[in-house]
Amino acid sequence: AQRVTQPEKLLSVFKGAPVELKCNYSYSGSPELFWYVQYSRQRLQLLLRHISRESIKGFTADLNKGETSFHLKKPFAQEEDSAMYYCALIRGSTLGRLYFGRGTQLTVWP
Amino acid sequence: DVKVTQSSRYLVKRTGEKVFLECVQDMDHENMFWYRQDPGLGLRLIYFSYDVKMKEKGDIPEGYSVSREKKERFSLILESASTNQTSMYLCASSSPGLSAELFFGSGTQLSVL
Lengths: 110, 113
Fold this sequence. Notes:
With 110 residues, chain A is mainly β. Chain A has no helices and 11 strands. Chain B has no helices and 12 strands.
């Protein structure tokens, strides 16, 4: 069963435009949600986690339990934001096992 | 700085060969994971381990096995490589806990001919 859904495989915006990468999850309990990012020729790395309620590189993500969503947003995209973004979820019972979405490739044009 | 090291960046093998992918982490993490990454399919978990000599199947364990004899090392074994196992393989490690960050290796691109 698909637990994390990222509906857009590809997303393109122009520099300075707002960007939103969508993520929906299916889990009836209290999930822990994350965004991971992979820049070209770099390792996959954590971008942010919902429990921290932090903004990293201008990105924020709010957990909406009613809509079961955890969309990633940035008000003004930069060219260096171009990367593959994965939404991921840990269920309460799985001791650190992450379930990943299929990823969204973001391209920010100059 | 956490280091997760995968022994090979690129590997080319023939159908039917036994293939070993090695992963070593230097942060004393209990958890280690093997994922495969395919375009359009995202990351799929093959196997994971919570402790030495312990292993759990992930979503796609068929055709794979693992070994964890030491805490820092987690090996993925393809018993008899097939062309549909051509993929990018990512190793990761983490501490226990719901919010523990996964640290990834740089990946091994395996081609099975």
